[in-house]
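> example.struct
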C-alpha cells in the first residue's frame, strides 16, 4: 500500500502548478515517470505495515533534482520544502533524505533510474536538445524546447542507436561514481547513532591515555616530543 498520491486533486499543489512556467522541466519529468507502466512498480507494493511513499513520486523528485545537478539526499529534501516544481511533483509529501537515499539504493529503483536516465538522455540527444558528450540532463535546454518535446517510454532501448545507448549508460555510470554514490556514502557516514558516537569518543580517550602513559614512561626527550606530536591526532579527531 502506498501513501495517497495523485496529480488530479484540487488542493494546494494545484495552486503551485499555476505558478510553474508552461515549459517547466517538472512537466517533462512528470510525463516521463507517468509513462512508465504500472507493472514496473509492482515490486514496491507493500501488503502490510505503514504505507510507503509512492515510487512514481519518489522517482519524479529524484530525476528532477538530477536535472538540476542536485545529487545530495539532504539537498533534495531541502528542495521539497522551497522549490515550487519539487513541491508540485511531490504533491505536498516531504520524504526525508534518509528515505530518499534508501529508495535510491533499492535494486529495483537503481534499474529503473538507470533506464529512465538512458532513455531520457538518448531521446534528448536524438532531439538535439543536449550535446552527445553532455553527462548532465540540462533542465534549462529541455524547458527551452518543451513544446517540441514529448517523452515516450519504450519497452526497450533497442530502438535507439546502440552507440547512443552505450554512451548514455557510460554517462550514468560516471554520474553514479562521481556524484550520486559519494553523496549517499557521505550522508550515511553522518548517520551515526548516539551509542556509536560514544564508542568513538571512548576509543579516542583510550588512545590519548595510552600516549600519556608512554610519554611518562619515556626518558628520551626526542621520543617524548614525537609521542606528544602523535597524541595530537586523536585529540583533534
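> example.seq
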Amino acid at each position: 500500500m502506498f501513501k495517497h498520491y495523485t496529480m488530479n486533486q484540487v488542493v494546494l499543489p494545484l495552486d503551485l502548478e499555476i505558478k510553474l512556467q508552461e515549459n517547466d522541466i517538472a512537466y517533462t519529468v512528470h510525463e516521463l515517470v507517468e509513462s512508465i507502466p504500472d507493472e514496473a512498480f509492482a515490486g514496491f507494493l507493500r501488503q502490510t505495515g505503514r504505507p510507503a511513499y509512492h515510487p512514481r513520486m519518489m522517482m519524479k523528485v529524484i530525476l528532477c533534482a538530477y536535472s538540476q545537478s542536485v545529487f545530495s539526499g539532504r539537498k533534495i529534501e531541502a528542495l521539497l520544502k522551497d522549490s515550487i516544481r519539487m513541491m508540485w511533483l511531490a504533491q505536498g509529501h516531504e520524504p526525508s533524505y534518509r528515505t530518499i537515499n534508501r529508495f535510491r539504493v533499492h535494486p529495483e529503483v537503481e534499474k529503473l533510474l538507470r533506464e529512465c536516465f538512458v532513455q531520457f538522455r538518448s531521446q534528448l540527444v536524438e532531439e538535439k536538445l543536449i550535446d552527445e558528450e553532455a553527462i548532465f540532463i540540462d533542465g534549462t535546454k529541455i524547458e527551452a524546447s518543451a513544446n517540441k518535446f514529448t517523452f515516450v517510454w519504450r519497452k526497450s532501448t533497442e530502438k535507439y542507436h546502440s552507440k547512443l545507448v552505450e554512451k548514455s549508460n557510460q554517462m550514468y555510470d560516471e554520474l553514479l561514481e562521481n556524484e550520486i554514490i559519494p553523496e549517499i556514502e557521505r550522508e550515511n557516514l553522518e548517520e551515526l547513532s548516539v551509542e556509536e558516537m560514544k564508542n568513538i569518543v571512548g576509543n579516542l580517550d583510550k588512545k590519548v591515555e595510552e600516549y600519556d602513559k608512554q610519554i611518562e614512561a619515556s626518558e628520551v626527550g626526542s621520543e617524548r616530543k614525537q609521542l606528544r606530536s602523535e597524541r595530537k591526532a586523536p585529540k583533534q579527531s
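> remarks
The CA atoms of residues 1 and 45 lie 6 Å apart.
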